[in-house]
Specification:
By secondary structure, the protein is mainly α. The chain has a single domain (about 5-175), classed as Arp2/3 complex 21 kDa subunit ARPC3 (Orthogonal Bundle). Helix content is about 80%, strand content about 5%. It is built from 8 helices and 2 strands; from the N terminus they run H-E-E-H-H-H-H-H-H-H. The chain has helices at about 5-25, 40-50, 55-70, 80-95, 105-130, 135-165, 165-170, 170-175, and strands at about 30, 35-40. It has a two-stranded antiparallel ribbon. The protein starts with a helix and ends with a helix.
Length: about 180
């Protein structure tokens, strides 16, 4: 990979991580049983993964979300978030169809569903370990995580549709500049 392309990828990945961090910190709704919170940052993880692929999705999801936990003062969630959100971004990017001009297609919808369920399930098990109560997390935390995940998917769709229409994602800017 040439230096220019490497630098470009580094910059895009860093911007995506920052975007996830900021979106995660915009709205915070606490979940008392898990000492966690729900947010809209998942929409930006979906954006990173579907629009830029599994590597950028994993890095933006894992590192961007973990950094938000650090900044919000949830240090106990940093490592689990790095793993759960990183896996979520990776799976969504691996399943999604980045080459399709239409954001709403079967593979992308499947990727969003799998991503939301992966995140909620990951936090279910981590929350159960951290709180010592699988049932409490299943009753209170898991539904909140599903709302967050599917809400993030719903928020991503209009953003993704709008971005796919830009010259950047049509390839003209990428092909001319790199």
């Amino acid at each position: 990979m040439n230096t220019r392309k490497l630098l470009y990828n580094l910059i895009i990945t860093g911007l995506l991580m920052a975007l996830v961090t900021v979106a995660t910190m915009l709205i915070k709704v606490p979940i008392p049983v898990t000492n966690g919170y729900i947010h809209v940052g998942d929409s930006m993880i979906f954006l990173a993964a579907i629009m830029f692929g599994k590597r950028k999705g994993a890095l933006a999801g894992g590192i961007g979300s973990a950094f938000a936990d650090l900044l919000w003062g949830y240090p106990q969630w940093i490592l689990p978030t790095l793993v759960v959100k990183g896996l979520m971004g990776y799976l969504v990017g691996a399943i999604a169809d980045q080459d399709n001009d239409n954001v709403i297609n079967l593979r992308n919808i499947l990727a969003l569903v799998i991503g939301a369920i992966t995140m909620a399930t990951g936090y279910l098990f981590v929350g159960a370990i951290m709180t010592g109560s699988f049932v409490a997390v299943l009753v209170e935390g898991f539904p909140a995580d599903l709302v967050q995940g599917f809400g993030g998917a719903a928020l991503f769709i209009p953003i993704g549709i709008a971005l796919k229409k830009t010259d950047y994602f049509k390839g003209s800017i990428l092909n001319k500049s790199l």
